[in-house]
Amino acid sequence: MNTTQQDETPLEFPLECHFRVIAEDIDNMHFVIETVLMELGIHDKLESANTSRGGKYVSFSVSTTVESLEKLNKIDSELRNIHGVRMVL
Hints:
single chain, alpha+beta, 4-stranded antiparallel sheet
């Protein structure tokens, strides 16, 4: 089904957002992601989630309250710009 912008429900802020970050299993990746989150003013706990079967990738999750669409986009962008991050969900 193809949705148009008219069919989408507008987001209402503040909004509780759950981010999943999938990254290469590089030394200190948890620390690097946590540092970026802190620089963005996010002090919620970053949880280690899963490791891929081959051990090449790890995932992390964090939940936080976001005040605006601009802040949501900034968090997404900053997480995606971390060296070794492959996906942000």
